[in-house]
Structure formats: structure tokens, C-alpha cells
Amino acid sequence: MKSTLFFLAVPLLASTVNIYVANSDGDNITIIDPETNSVKGEIKVSKNPHGIVASPDRKRFYVSSESEDLLDTVDAATLKVIHRTPLERRPNNLAITQDGRRVYVCIRGQSWVDIIDTASLEKVKSVPVGRGPHNVYLTPNGQYMIATSMDDHKLTAIDTKTEEAAFEIPLPGVPRPVFIDQSMKYLYIQLSNLHGFVVVDYARREVVKKVLLPDAPAGAKPLIPETFSHGIGVAPDGKTLWVNSLLDNSVSVFSVPDLTRLATIPVGRGPDWLTFTPDSKKCFISNAGSNSVSAMDVASMKEITKIPVGKIPKRIITVVSP
């Protein structure tokens, strides 16, 4: 008798994609299902969560509390805070090394980045990066953490092996969000009072181009003072760059690498950060002024829906879990 083998069309170990948004005026992280564009849960954390990052093995989340000066460690399986690490004044955004051993946290009220050991969950070092450190990013090759200094108008690269500052990149203004090209050829950087962004040549460590967004209506004022454009990123397929405007509550889409503007799309009030699904089919934008997240269709460059979340949603990330 011949036997017949049947194979499942769906992999047995399919990964799960979720969107996580920190509600900066609350005490929770909203979890969004990008397939249904709906809220599927939340994580209760310390008050005023600012930054959020997942560990490389997806077993933990790390969340900074700007008002309580804490780093919450969250167990991804239970979605419960398992440890709170005391930090110094006003911890802002954070990033994690490729091996998951260190979390870097910008301490806005000081002039350095704190480094947290994820085994002991204690601070092991502070690295000076200039006044008003706000955002920090791991380079795609894992070699450096790039920290922004708002008051000193510069970026500082911290070597992740030596945990020492390696070099600086001066900027013509106050650095806000930064996106590092996967090839590490360019950095796309938003600046205070600039309705657009500048392009930094990473190898030359200097600004090589400035790109402006469409003019906003006369008398327009951003939700955040002096912050005309906030939230920037390239889709994972590398084809388009998306840039938020707080002046006219929109997102503009540019082709990559020539940076030709393809579309400008209305979203909610105060678009603040953005993230993409790994397949580059959707972009999610946190609307800080309307307590919502805009789900965008990347191909058609149109808003699909607005998803109600918590109070003043800002930092938003995509996490793929096994």
C-alpha cells in the first residue's frame, strides 16, 4: 500500500510581528496587531515611558521612565515588569547591543549615556556625550552607539567594545531623530526648527545635503515647540524614506537614494515617531496630539486607519518574535 504524505501550508513555527508604542503621558505600552490594525494588549510600566527596546532574543523589553528615573525590565512572556533599575535624571531613549549584554540610555538631565549590564541589571558605566543627550542608536554593524547631544549640536559615537567615545559629528542645529542607512553610507537627521532633514555622509562625517518638506499652512505651529519635523525612517526594503511633519500633521515619502518626494499624506495631529513591518507593506506612525497610531499602506501611500491608543503616544517599534 502506498502512503501519502501531507504537508502543512503554514509553517509550524511561524513568527509573530507586533507593534509597541509607548504612551508618554501614561504608564503603559500599547501592543498593536499589524495584521488587523487593532490593539491586542498592553504592558503596564512605570510612569511616563520614554524609550522602549526589545532584547535580541525577544525575551525582554527595556523601558525608560522619564519622570521616575527608572529602567523597567519587562518579561516578554508574562508582560510584567520584573526589575526596576534606578537611573539619573530624565532618562530618554535607549538602545541595546547586538549580543544583548548592554543597554545604553541617554540621561537627558546630565551629559552622558548610562550603560546597563543586562545580567545584573545595574549601571556599570556613564559615557560623556555632550549636554542634553536625547536619542541613541546602534549602527547596523553593531560597532557603535550613536548618541545625540541636543545642547551641543553633535553626535557622539561610542565604541561598543571599549565603551568609550570614539568620534564626533558636528551638526548645524539641534539633533532630533536620526536614521542610519543599512549600508552605513548616510545618516538622515532631523533638526529643531527645520521643516525637513539633513543628510550626513558617514565616512566624511559631515552634512552633504538638506531636504525640505512642503510648505506648511501660514501660521502653523507644531505640537512640540521648535519641532517642525519629528520621526524618520527608511522602509526595510530600502526603497522609500518616510518623514513626519508636525507643522502640517503629515508624512512625506521620498524615493531612495535620490530623495525625490513621491507623496505627502495627512495623518493624525502631532506625528512623532514611525516604524515599519518587516515586509515593508505597512508603516505605523504615532500621533502624539491625537492619542492614536496611523496605519499606512506603503504601496499606495495612503492611510488605512487610525488606531486609538494611550495618552500622548511617542516612541514606536516593531518586534518580530519567534
Question: Could you give a short description of this structure?
Answer:
It contains no helices and 28 strands. The chain has strands spanning 16-23, 28-33, 38-44, 49-54, 60-65, 70-75, 80-86, 91-96, 102-107, 112-117, 122-128, 133-138, 144-149, 154-159, 164-170, 175-180, 186-191, 196-201, 206-212, 232-234, 240-245, 250-255, 261-266, 271-276, 282-287, 292-297, 302-308, 313-321.
Can you give a write-up of this model?
- By secondary structure, the chain is mainly beta.
- It folds into two domains: 15-28 and 176-322, YVTN repeat-like/Quinoprotein amine dehydrogenase (Methylamine Dehydrogenase, Chain H, 7 Propeller); 45-170, YVTN repeat-like/Quinoprotein amine dehydrogenase (Methylamine Dehydrogenase, Chain H, 7 Propeller), CATH 2.130.10.
- The chain has no helices and 28 strands.
- It has strands spanning 16-23, 28-33, 38-44, 49-54, 60-65, 70-75, 80-86, 91-96, 102-107, 112-117, 122-128, 133-138, 144-149, 154-159, 164-170, 175-180, 186-191, 196-201, 206-212, 232-234, 240-245, 250-255, 261-266, 271-276, 282-287, 292-297, 302-308, 313-321.
- The strands form seven sheets. A four-stranded antiparallel β-sheet has the order 3-2-1-28, with no helix packed on it. The chain has a four-stranded antiparallel β-sheet with strand order 4-5-6-7, with no helix packed on it.
- A hairpin with a 4-residue loop joins β5 (60-65) and β6.
- The protein starts with 15 loop residues before the first strand and ends with a strand.
